[in-house]
Amino acid sequence: MSEDSTADQQALFTTAQAREHQEGYSDRENREIHDHGGIVRDEHVSRAMSIRSIHYDPLESDRPDKMPGQAKDLEKHRQIRLVEGTETFRNALENGDIPTIKHMVGDSSQRADVSGLKAIGKVDELINGPAPVVVVLGEMGAGKTDFACLLAQRWRALHSGQSLLGTNIQSLEEKDRWVDDDGDVQDGWIPDYGTLMEWVEQDGDPLEHSQRPKLFIGDEFSSAASGTGKQGYETRQKMAPLVYKIRKYGGALIYIAHGERSIHPMLWRVGTIVKKVSKKKAVIADSIRNAELADIHGQVEGVPPTDFRYNTKEASDWSWSAYGDETDDLEADEAAKMTAIWTVIRCKEEGMTDRETAKFVPYSHGWVNSRWNEYRNDGLHTETLGKVEEVIG
């Protein structure tokens, strides 16, 4: 083979590899190229799309729940990319521009390999089975989000077909589109509790309708690093109804949390706790006592990176109210009341004080004391306890 031929082959290889890098499939994170780069060749249109992508923030709109997580998924953005990309492809065919064609087609064989496959078996054990719940803990930089995405990647592989992945991680590329109650197609970014409930319930009553496999990745609902403050307080109080509803509809949950202290008892009662202690190692436990891992029963070493694509610098947003609603009716919800009673009984059985228990319910420590006495002394709330256990068990 001549030197010129070798150079041409290398150029085509590099062009295809560039497309895979652009799509987020290379070892190095793509920090420079928007999705329309090289596809939209009109300089002014390309620049306008880049500026829109940089400044796009769905939380600034009147209805964030109706907006996609990223500008590239806006309908107008997709339409422009399709029109311009078609022209780019037509011109390339007419002029024999093979590098451009190779860039548009790409080459999936150039994607980065996943290493550490020995750990995949243990990862599968965590996420396999009916309606799994996994809580991922760890210090900043330990790879919590990456591990959560690896779990989701394996869940999807184990649930081939019409499975749905939703998340409040705005930049996650692998989330699935779904149709909301208004008939609008959403991109799978779920920024608030109201939208999550609509997403979970989209297939109807589970007693009457079959449910597609659904997985929600919740990334740190509390914005404070310690899980304290108003948002951390809301998260501890309102997590139980969320878990209850997801389990009721047969959904799976992966929740990325700040630390042991912020974890609602229902999470570790129904799920598994995984603490990332380093990029490659995770400890597995079944419960939390005195704000520390308890009942540790294993670890995963050689954890491979996920193939899922997301912005590692993203600070995910979350609202416990539906966008557009001035009031929060979660406290009046039957699930909230039932799970609050369940929480009181289970926390008190663990030896927690009324004040400690009140941190996990939307009521006062006096309310906690009254419900506990009604259960312990008067035999009340056993039916409620049984109903909740039936759903989450």
Automatic annotation (TrEMBL):
Region (Disordered): 1-75
Compositionally biased intervals (Polar residues): 7-17
Listed Basic and acidic residues bias regions: 18-46, 54-75
Source organism superkingdom: Archaea
Protein name as catalogued: Uncharacterized protein
